[in-house]
Amino acid sequence: MAEKMPAIMKTKPAYGAELVEVDVPKPGPGEVLIKVLATSICGTDLHIYEWNEWAQSRIKPPQIMGHEVAGEVIEVGPGVDTLEVGDYISAETHIVCGKCYACRHNRYHVCQNTKIFGVDMDGVFAEYAIVPAQNAWKNPKDMPPEYAALQEPLGNAVDTVLAGPIAGRSTLITGAGPLGLLGIAVAKASGAYPVIVSEPSEFRRELAKKVGADYVINPFEEDPVKAVMDITDGAGVEVFLEFSGAPKALEQGLAATTPGGRVSLLGLFPRDVTVDFNNLIIFKALEVHGITGRHLWETWYTVSSLIQSGRLNLDPVITHKYKGFDDFEEAFELMKAGKTGKVVFFPHKG
Ligand SMILES: NC(=O)C1=CN([C@@H]2O[C@H](COP(=O)(O)OP(=O)(O)OC[C@H]3O[C@@H](n4cnc5c(N)ncnc54)[C@H](O)[C@@H]3O)[C@@H](O)[C@H]2O)C=CC1
Ligand SMILES: CC(=O)[C@H](N)C(=O)O
Ligand SMILES: [Zn+2]
Ligand SMILES: [Zn+2]
Description:
It is found in: Cytoplasm. This protein is α/β, with parallel strands linked by helices. 29% of the residues lie in helices and 26% in strands. α12 links the parallel β17 and β18. The longest helix has 12 residues. The structure holds 1,4-dihydronicotinamide adenine dinucleotide (NAI), 2-amino-3-ketobutyric acid (AKB) and zinc ion (2 copies).
């Protein structure tokens, strides 16, 4: 195996990233080295690429980017007895402590000492990468690597959609970015109907329909609340799933939710948000869930089963595939322009 490898690295505290040659890492105690078979771009990677305020407050360049991955174990570090060479794995990105109040209440997804790989340490946008053995998830051998890499964001979508009953429920999804598209796939696979999607990008509304949305709305051209009321004969939706991070979408979604309905909030807002709590939440007795990360490890079992069931319509979600990293800047710029669903890199050109 080569001693050097290409990697997409945040080399300096500024816009963009660089494709650089770095040493192939060695696994330390409790770590494995994987050959990266597929790795996909997350919205968080875009924040790091663009070097927004959050990224400036959290990322310490130089650092290899990326955290959505599928790979083959090629070397096992000292003390690792749960994995062996040849295992086909993906990785939970939250490295949790197991000791804090949250972890001791089985709430690992909100561990108070969470470290995230690809965010707080070198990630997986490379030909080889280090994964903590405690974060490895073993994949069935026949799962396509591009699906296996998507399990991490699919976990966010599963926790959002399945935070309450969904089968047979009318559902509004605001935001059909990569995560919203995965949310549509999970909602449809789980029996939601109708699935109504509010999304201003025409490109992404078309993707939403391909994934299985029953109705799509352009919130910049028509009132989504009125559209939802027309579709639901004035009742509103039973379930509102927020995947946009847009304050207006939040307000519209709450107004479109039927009294007593359920709300799951995954989208991250750019700033503090003002909401009419009395009339949009309290007097409607809405059930509201904040969603983050993935429940460890039950969400991974659910995601893997959903993929293996064949009921998740993932192919329309994966809009761009790249062999190697040479065109990574094109990939990031297309994603920034909202002209993609999920973007997947296959690092090895052979
Ligand atoms: N809570 C968590 O653990 C995580 C949260 N996130 C957040 O989830 C959200 C979705 O992630 P991505 O799909 O990657 O984001 P994205 O930014 O690619 O997609 C957001 C979509 O919302 C659409 N949108 C904008 N204004 C809208 C409006 N008024 N009504 C309806 N749609 C509107 C945009 O056109 C875009 O397609 C982001 O805010 C991201 O930061 C992502 C990962 C984990
Ligand atoms: C930080 C991330 O983007 C990651 N997908 C997560 O679920 O926390
Ligand atoms: Zn992510
Ligand atoms: Zn903890």
